[in-house]
Specification:
- It is built from 1 helix and 6 strands; from the N terminus they run E-E-E-E-H-E-E.
- The protein is mainly beta.
- A hairpin with a 2-residue loop joins strand 5 and strand 6.
- The termini are far apart.
């Protein structure tokens, strides 16, 4: 299959929490792990796939041991992004990120 992505993907496995809006119960969180990440999206390994077009909010938890020396932050940071499910495969889903994101210290 021909590669269609314009951005470099990095093999990066980090824990994630995926939240979707549920009209009955607000935002529901599901545990997942990234398989790869680029500046435009990620592939999430999940036990329960999401439907195509579903809007999601994702929290990625990254270790920042080296940055901790400079910024005096906690041991990890949380990157919050929003996106949309654009591909479904057995064992996971492809997510396209929106342009806005937040990086916060993780407690």
């Amino acid at each position: 299959m021909e590669e269609k992505r314009g951005m470099t993907r990095y093999d990066l496995v980090v824990p994630a929490v995926v939240r979707t809006a549920n009209s009955n119960r607000g935002l529901q969180g599901v545990q997942a792990y990234t398989r790869d990440v680029s500046s435009q999206g990620t592939f999430l390994k999940m036990k329960q796939p999401l439907e195509l077009g579903r809007r999601v909010e994702i929290e990625l938890y990254l270790s920042i041991n080296k940055l901790q020396e400079f910024f005096k932050l906690h041991e990890k940071v949380c990157v919050k992004v929003r996106g949309e499910v654009i591909r479904i495969e057995q064992g996971g889903v492809g997510i396209s990120f929106d342009k806005r994101y937040t990086i916060l210290p993780s407690m």
